[in-house]
Design goal:
Length: 1032
C-alpha cells in the first residue's frame, strides 16, 4: 500500500465544504483525504455470480455442463437464461422481506434445447425452460435477507502450510567436492488463489521452487522449478549462474512462449509479471530466508546468499543443521470467491438430468437446504450487527480465519497485512487476532493505494497515536456499540472519516437526477426534471435493524428546492449536515469525587436526564402470527363469551392504535388460544364453563413511552390494506414500535479512546463541580484511569474541545461585527503561521469571514478537523489556548458545592465525546454471585440454576406466596416430589407431604448460619416451647 497522492483542490473536504457550508478548522499540514472510502466495495462483485463472462459466473458453469451433457441419443444445448426477483425493487424488498419473514432472492431460469433424431432420422430439438435455483441477492445496503433475518457475508482468510523453506547442509556432495555445499530452497505448493492484474482471483495449484546451490568458495548454481496445473507443463532449469537465461526461461514459461526481450537486471518480481506475488507474500519469504529485498537482481541475490552461506560455514554449530521452517501462507478470499466455490460444488453434486415425459432435469437448489445453509449455518455468513453505521460498515468488511484450532502464530499481525488488514480492530474475546477487518483505505482490487491503514472504527478516533494500542482496540469496539441519541451533536474534534461516512451510508439518500422538489412525503420524495418527468425517490420510515436500531430517515429538502444529481435528500439520526454524529460532547472534569467514581464508575449531572442529552432511541417490531389455534377477539367472540369490549380487534381499532403511546407492560392487543387443562382457563360465561376453554395471550409494551408507529396486515408475502375483510384472511399482524431510553444509573458510557465506565451516581446540577465562571460540569471521570491505561489522547481532545466551545461563545459575544471577524481572522492567521500547511483550506476560511463565517460558527458549532496520522504538536494546541485566554494546561481550581470548598490542586477539564453504549441497565440481568445471593443450584439432574434471592423477592413483591411455597418445598431438588406434583396437577389431586425432603436452599442457609455461630433447630409448631416464661 503506497502513500496516496495529494488530492488537490478537488478533494472531498473542499467538495463537502462547498456543498454543505459547514465551517471546519482543518489542522492538518497536508490535504490527504481519501475520497474512495467505501465499505461496500468488498462485496460489490457478488452479482458477477449471475452474469455471463465473469470469472465467477455460475451461468457459464451451468452452460458448460449443459453443453457437455449427452443422455443416450439425446444431446443438450444451452440457449439463454433469465432472472426473476422475489421483489422488483431492492429498497422495498428489504423492508417487505423482513416484515414477512421471507427471503429476498432471485430465481434462475435456464432455457435449453434437447436434440434427438425423430422417426425419420432427422435431427430435431425441443426447447425447454426450467428454474434451476433460487439464490439470495444483496439488498440496496449490500446485505442478505433470509427467512426475515438480515445477514452479511464476510471474507475468509485461510492458511496453507505447504509453503516452507529448506536450509540443508549437503554432507554427501560436500565430501565428494571437498568443500561445503548448502542448498537453500523456497517452495510454494498447494491450492493457491493467485490474484492477477486482470481478475479478482484465479484458482490454480502452483509449485514454485527456487533453489540456490552454493559453496563457500563462491561457485553457485541456480535452479528454478515451476509447475502449474493450468499450464500443464513442467520444466527444470539447472545451470550455472546465467541470470539472462534463467530469467528468460521463467518468463517464457509464464507467458506461454511469447517473449519480446528481457534485460539481465530484471528482478524476480518483474519476471513473474503476470502474477501479483507481492499480494502472496513472496517478497516476505525471500526477505526472511535469503535476507534480500524483492527489488534485488539475481546477481545481487546470489551474492547475498553466498555471503550468508560463508558466514554459516564459519559457524561450527551450523554445519550439522538441517532446518525446515514452515511459513504460513495466508490467503484472503472475498465473499464472492468462497461462495463461488461452494455453489459450484453444490451444482456439481446436485444437478442431473433424467427422463420424465420427455427429457427434463431436476429442480434441485430451490428447495434444497444446502443453499440456505450457506447463509444460515456457514460461519462466513453472519447475523448483521447494525447498532450504528460504524458497526454495520465494520461488519461488512470483516475477515474471518478459516481455522478451528488457531495457534498463537495465527493471531500475530504480519507485516504483509499493512494497508490491507487493520492492526487495531479485533475482538477482545478469545477470537482476538482471528477475526480481522479490512483497512479503510483498502478496496477489493489487484492494485490499490491509500493512506488509511486502519479500519473504519479506529479511523474515527482523534489523536490515535497518543493512545495505547489496547485502548485503541477498546475504543474501536465502543464506537461499534454506541446507540443513536435523540439530541446528538457534532463532536468538537473529528477526523476525515466523519465526513467520508456520509457519502457511503445508505440512509443518506441522494437525488438521482437534477431538478426541483415537487413533493415531500413520509414514504417518498418526488423530483421533477427539466423535461417535466417526476422521479419518485423512496425514503425509509419505521425501519429497524437487527439490533433494534431506529433507521428512520428525515427529509432535508422542502418543496421548491433546486437539487443537483448527487445532492443529499434525507439524513438519519446518525448524521447532521453531512457529518457523522455518534453522540454529543459533554463538559468533563477529571478528579476523584467522594468515592462515586471509584475505578470505572462515572458521575453525571441530572441535566443530562432532564434535557434528554443522553437519551437513546430504539425501534422494534412485534409479530402476531396466526395458526389454527389462534383466535382474535372479534365482536361476535366477545359477545359469546362475555369478554370486555375493550379487547375487540377490528380495522377501526387497529387504525386507532397507530400513534398511541404505551407504558411498560400496557397491552396493545389480546388474542386467545384453546387449552386442555381445566386449571389454565381464564374466560368464563354466565352459565359456567364453556365447552372450549381459552388462554389469554397479549402483546405488551416492553418499555415506557413506547410509540406505535405502524401496523401491517400480512398474507404470505403481501401487505394488505387494513380492512375487516383482510383482517379475517391475513396470516400475521406486524406492529412497529419505537421509543426512547433515558440514561439511568447502571448504564454504560464510554469515550472514543477506550475510557469506558458505568454510571454510578446521577447528581443534581447544584451538586456538580463548577468551573471558575460558575458553569457546572456534565460528567466527572476518575483521573486514575489515564496513567494506568495510557490513553492520553482523550486529554488532547479535552483541550481542543474546550477551545472549540470557548471560541464559539466568544464569537457569539462579539457577533458578526468587525471585532468578531477580526478576532477569528487573527486566530486563523496564527494557525497558518504555526502549521505552515501546503493547502489553501485556511486561506479559504479567512476569505469566508466576510461572507458570514462568524454567524455560521455561532449557529452550528466550531469543529476542529484533524488528519488521522499527521502529528498535531502540542504547540498548536497551546497556541489556541493562549489566544483564547485559557490556561495552557487546560486546568483550573474547581468549586465543589457538596463540600463548599475549592479543590486544592488544579483539575483538567474540557469537552469529550461521550458515547452511550447498548449495555443498559434495563436490559441487564440483575443477579448476585456469592452465597445466598446466587441462585441456588439443585442437587438433582445437572445442577441447573434454581430460584435465588432476587427471584424470591420479585415473587414476594407480587404476593405470590403459593408459588414461593411450591418452589421452596415441592420442587426444591427432590425428584420424587416433582414427579408427584406433576401427576397431581394432571389428575387434579395434589397430595404431597412437603416435609419428606429438605430444601437445598434451607440446607445452604443453615450452613451459613452455623458458620456464623448460630444453630438452627427444627421444631414442632404444635409442641409448646420449653421455658416459655423465661423467654418472656
Amino acid at each position: 500500500m503506497g502513500k496516496l497522492d495529494r488530492v488537490e483542490k478537488s478533494s472531498i473536504l473542499k467538495q463537502h465544504l462547498s456543498r454543505n457550508k459547514v465551517p471546519f478548522i482543518y489542522l492538518g499540514k497536508e490535504d490527504i483525504l481519501d475520497d474512495r472510502f467505501d465499505v461496500n466495495s468488498v462485496i460489490g462483485d457478488y452479482l458477477d455470480l449471475l452474469k455471463p463472462g465473469t470469472k465467477v459466473s455460475l451461468i457459464d458453469y451451468i452452460k458448460d455442463k449443459i453443453n457437455r451433457t449427452v443422455i443416450d441419443d439425446k444431446r443438450l444445448e444451452y440457449v439463454s437464461y433469465r432472472l426473476e426477483d422475489s421483489y422488483p425493487d431492492s429498497s422495498s424488498g428489504l423492508k417487505y422481506s423482513k416484515l414477512t419473514a421471507s427471503t429476498y432472492e432471485t430465481t434462475l431460469y435456464i432455457t435449453y434445447r434437447v436434440h434427438f433424431n425423430n422417426s425419420e432420422g432427422i435431427d430435431t430439438y425441443e426447447e425447454v425452460e426450467h428454474p434451476i435455483f433460487s439464490l439470495p441477492i444483496p439488498t440496496f445496503r449490500n446485505t442478505f435477507v433470509v427467512n426475515g433475518t438480515e445477514f452479511s457475508l464476510v471474507s475468509r482468510m485461510s492458511r496453507n502450510s505447504n509453503i516452507y523453506t529448506d536450509v540443508v547442509y549437503d554432507r554427501e556432495t560436500s565430501s565428494m567436492m571437498g568443500e561445503p555445499r548448502f542448498n537453500l530452497t523456497v517452495q510454494l505448493k498447494g491450492d493457491l488463489t493467485l490474484p492477477t492484474k486482470h481478475s479478482q482471483g484465479v484458482q490454480d495449484v502452483v509449485t514454485f521452487q527456487l533453489t540456490f546451490i552454493t559453496s563457500a568458495s563462491g561457485k553457485s548454481f541456480i535452479q528454478v522449478r515451476i509447475r502449474s496445473l493450468n499450464m500443464i507443463r513442467h520444466q527444470n532449469y539447472g545451470t550455472d549462474l546465467d541470470p539472462q537465461l534463467s530469467q528468460y526461461d521463467i518468463f517464457k514459461e509464464y507467458t506461454g512462449g511469447y517473449v519480446k526481450s528481457i534485460s539481465a537486471n530484471k528482478t524476480i518480481m518483474d519476471i513473474l509479471s503476470n502474477i501479483d506475488w507481492e499480494s502472496n507474500n513472496l517478497n516476505v519469504i525471500l526477505s526472511k530466508v535469503f535476507g534480500v529485498n524483492p527489488g534485488d537482481s539475481i546477481e545481487e541475490i546470489v551474492e547475498k546468499v553466498h555471503s550468508q552461506v560463508k558466514q554459516n560455514y564459519n559457524n561450527p554449530a551450523s554445519k550439522s543443521i538441517y532446518g525446515r521452517e514452515a511459513l504460513y501462507y495466508k490467503i484472503i478470499e472475498s465473499p464472492t470467491q468462497w461462495l463461488y466455490k461452494e455453489l459450484t460444488g453444490i451444482i456439481e453434486k446436485s444437478l442431473f438430468f433424467h427422463t420424465f415425459k420427455g427429457l427434463s432435469w431436476n429442480i434441485f437448489v430451490g428447495k434444497s437446504p444446502r443453499i440456505r445453509s450457506l447463509f444460515l449455518q456457514n460461519k462466513l455468513s453472519q447475523w448483521l450487527e447494525d447498532t450504528n453505521p460504524v458497526s454495520e460498515g465494520s461488519h461488512k468488511r470483516r475477515i474471518a480465519y478459516d481455522l478451528d484450532l488457531p495457534t498463537n502464530d495465527d493471531r500475530i499481525y504480519h507485516s504483509s497485512y499493512r494497508g490491507t488488514v487493520c492492526p487495531i480492530e479485533t475482538p477482545e474475546s478469545g477470537k482476538i487476532g482471528i477475526v480481522l477487518n479490512y483497512a479503510s483505505g483498502y478496496r477489493n482490487t489487484n492494485k490499490d493505494t491509500g493512506y488509511n491503514i486502519v479500519a473504519l472504527p479506529p479511523s474515527l478516533i482523534p489523536f490515535l497515536n497518543k493512545n495505547d494500542a489496547n485502548r485503541c482496540l477498546m475504543g474501536s469496539n465502543m464506537l461499534k456499540q454506541s446507540l443513536p441519541l435523540k439530541k446528538s451533536k457534532w463532536s468538537k474534534v473529528i477526523t476525515e472519516n466523519y465526513i467520508n461516512m456520509y457519502n457511503y451510508h445508505w440512509t443518506n439518500i441522494k437525488s438521482p437526477v437534477a431538478g426541483v422538489v415537487t413533493s415531500v412525503g413520509t414514504n417518498r420524495i418526488r423530483v421533477k426534471t427539466g423535461s417535466g418527468e417526476e422521479i419518485p425517490v423512496e425514503i425509509y420510515t419505521n425501519f429497524s435493524g437487527n439490533k433494534k436500531t431506529n433507521y428512520t430517515t428525515v427529509p432535508k429538502v422542502k418543496v421548491g428546492d433546486r437539487v443537483e444529481a448527487g445532492d443529499i435528500l434525507t439524513e438519519s439520526k446518525f448524521f447532521k449536515s453531512g457529518v457523522y454524529t455518534p453522540s454529543t460532547p459533554l463538559l468533563a472534569a477529571y478528579l476523584p469525587y467522594n468515592g462515586y467514581n471509584f475505578e470505572d464508575s462515572i458521575v453525571i449531572s441530572q441535566r443530562l436526564v432532564d434535557e434528554d442529552i443522553l437519551t437513546s432511541e430504539w425501534a422494534e417490531t412485534e409479530t402476531l402470527t396466526f395458526d389454527k389455534e389462534t383466535l382474535l377477539p372479534t365482536q361476535g367472540f366477545c359477545d359469546d363469551y362475555n369478554i370486555s369490549q375493550d379487547w375487540v380487534i377490528n380495522s377501526e381499532v387497529i387504525k386507532s392504535k397507530i400513534g398511541q403511546t404505551l407504558h411498560s407492560g400496557e397491552p396493545l392487543f389480546h388474542y386467545f388460544r384453546p387449552v386442555k387443562l381445566v386449571d389454565d382457563f381464564i374466560v368464563k360465561t354466565d352459565n359456567g364453563y364453556p365447552q372450549n376453554l381459552f388462554s389469554l395471550v397479549d402483546i405488551r409494551a416492553h418499555y415506557d413511552d413506547s410509540r406505535v408507529d405502524a401496523i401491517y396486515l400480512l398474507q404470505d408475502n403481501e401487505i394488505l390494506e387494513i380492512t375487516d375483510e383482510n383482517l379475517n384472511k391475513c396470516t400475521s399482524i406486524v406492529i412497529c414500535t419505537s421509543g426512547c431510553h433515558k440514561v439511568e444509573e447502571g448504564d454504560k458510557l464510554s469515550g472514543v479512546h477506550g475510557n469506558k465506565g458505568t454510571v454510578s451516581k446521577i447528581l443534581p446540577v447544584d451538586m456538580m463541580p463548577r468551573l471558575p465562571d460558575g458553569t457546572p460540569v456534565d460528567i466527572v471521570l476518575n483521573t486514575m484511569g489515564i496513567p494506568s491505561r495510557m490513553n492520553v489522547g482523550q486529554l488532547f481532545e479535552l483541550s481542543l474541545g474546550l477551545c472549540s466551545e470557548t471560541l464559539r461563545k466568544r464569537l457569539e459575544e462579539y457577533g458578526d461585527t468587525d471585532k468578531g471577524r477580526e478576532y477569528l481572522r487573527n486566530l486563523l492567521v496564527l494557525l497558518k503561521e504555526e502549521i505552515k500547511p501546503n493547502h489553501d483550506l485556511l486561506d479559504e476560511l479567512i476569505e469566508d469571514i466576510d461572507n458570514g463565517l462568524v454567524t455560521k460558527m455561532v449557529n452550528t458549532d466550531v469543529v476542529f478537523l484533524m488528519p488521522q496520522f499527521q502529528e498535531i504538536t502540542t504547540s498548536v494546541v497551546k497556541l489556541i489556548l493562549r489566544y483564547l485566554g485559557l490556561p495552557e494546561d487546560s486546568a483550573a481550581h474547581l468549586y465543589l458545592p457538596e463540600f463548599d470548598e475549592t479543590t486544592k490542586r488544579k483539575v483538567i477539564y474540557g469537552y469529550n465525546t461521550i458515547l452511550k453504549l447498548e449495555h443498559m441497565v434495563k436490559k441487564k440481568t440483575k443477579a448476585r454471585c456469592n452465597g445466598l445471593n446466587n441462585p441456588d443450584p439443585t442437587f438433582e439432574e445437572h445442577r441447573g440454576q434454581r430460584s435465588g434471592e432476587m427471584e424470591f423477592w420479585a415473587l414476594e413483591s407480587h404476593h405470590a406466596t403459593a408459588t414461593i411455597n411450591e418452589m421452596l418445598k415441592y420442587t426444591s431438588g427432590n425428584y420424587q416430589n416433582k414427579k408427584k406434583l406433576y401427576m397431581g396437577l394432571m389428575t387434579g389431586r395434589v397430595e404431597i407431604n412437603p416435609g419428606t425432603s429438605k430444601s437445598p436452599t434451607l440446607e445452604k442457609f443453615s450452613e451459613y448460619m452455623r458458620a456464623l455461630g448460630f444453630d438452627i433447630v427444627e421444631t414442632d409448631k404444635n409442641k409448646p416451647k420449653e421455658n416459655e416464661d423465661e423467654i418472656e
